[in-house]
Every structure is written in structure tokens, then in C-alpha cells.
Design a protein that fits this description.
The structure is a single chain. The chain has 115 residues and is of the alpha+beta class. It has two helices and five strands; from the N terminus they run βαββββα. Strands 4-3-2-1-5 form a five-stranded mixed sheet. A hairpin with a 5-residue loop joins strand 2 and strand 3. The protein is globular and about 35 Å long. The N and C termini lie far apart (30 Å).
């Protein structure tokens, strides 16, 4: 079971993602579209569906990948404001918690891009 902490590095993919993708396909997205190495331990990659009801979290732990899916029934996840030129953002643990809890935020802007 994944235990998310502030020690891990969190990366948010800013575009909509097809939620049918599996670990291998999402790892390739991390490499080709986000420009990151999916094999770096303690890395967390966050993907959001187009309708903002589903989130997939790809986690690279010690010697293994794990994939978690979170789906909201009646609500939508809040999508932060991004610079449309960038496809990937490094976010902090507290922003990750805010995103995954489905907390209704009035405005959230992430300024640090990875690419």
C-alpha cells in the first residue's frame, strides 16, 4: 500500500488523460510527454481525466510501480490553473493532498514547471 509523504516528489500532468491507460503506458507518458524518468524512486505522477471525476496516481517505489485510481461519484476534482505551454508541474505534498481529497478550492495556481 502506498503511503504518501512530504519526502516524495510529486509531478502533475497538466493535460487530460485517458483513464484506460495502465502502468506501462503512463510510464511512457512520463518519459515522452513530461520529459521525466519514471524509474526514479519515490516519484509520484498525477493524471486527471477530461471530466475531472477520475484521477490516476502512478507511484514509483522501491523496485516496483503502483497505480492508484480515485473516482469521485458526485463531485469533480479541482483543476489548478496552469500555463498551457507546460505539460508537467512539480507540486508540493500539501498541494497533492488538496488535489486528492477533492477539496473544493476557489483558486489554486501552480507556478513551478518542470519542462
Amino acid at each position: 500500500m502506498i503511503s504518501f509523504t512530504s519526502r516524495q516528489k510529486y509531478y502533475f500532468y497538466s493535460g487530460p488523460m485517458d483513464m484506460r491507460k495502465d502502468i506501462d503506458t503512463l510510464s511512457e507518458v512520463v518519459r515522452s510527454q513530461m520529459g521525466l524518468d519514471p524509474y526514479i524512486e519515490e516519484s509520484v505522477f498525477i493524471f486527471m481525466s477530461k471530466n475531472l471525476r477520475t484521477m490516476k496516481i502512478l507511484y514509483r517505489g522501491r523496485r516496483r510501480f503502483e497505480l492508484t485510481k480515485i473516482r469521485l461519484d458526485d463531485e469533480k476534482f479541482f483543476l489548478p490553473v496552469f500555463d498551457e505551454q507546460c505539460s508537467c508541474y512539480k507540486i508540493c505534498w500539501s498541494d497533492f493532498v488538496t488535489l486528492t481529497e477533492g477539496v473544493q478550492v476557489t483558486k489554486m495556481q501552480i507556478k513551478e514547471d518542470v519542462a
